[in-house]
Prior knowledge:
By secondary structure, the chain is mainly α. The protein has helices spanning about 1-10, 35-55, 60-70, 75-80, 80-85, 100-105, 110-115, 120-135.
Amino acid sequence: MGRQLATALLRASSLEPRHINISTRRPETLGGLFLDQRWVSAVLYSLLNMCTAQKLGAGKTLRLLNGLFETNTFTYHSLVNSPSASDLNSPDDLFPWMSLVDAQTKDTPLTDLVLRDKGLRDCFSVMYYNVFSNLAEG
């Protein structure tokens, strides 16, 4: 699961593993990991866009995201606004392409979800930390 997230993050950004510095200190000694909810939303929307680019239907995309985060939090309405969600008539329909600029500059259903759901934020933080710790190890 961690390797999948790392691969998705690296594909969705211009980062290369050699540009990432990993601290060897335990997270609890660093005072925690802060990830802005708009940044988290943009990363999650980039995963959604990758699923759309691969022609993965909305139903399979939701199962993939919920499986990745071991939750049932992600729904059509938690990812896209109501008019767009109502356009999804079948689980085989594709999610619309999401603007990553909008994800970081405007309120979206996903930024609201990330803000409200501490468990999701904690899960994302743990996955993020583990992925980059594993990359540092090699």
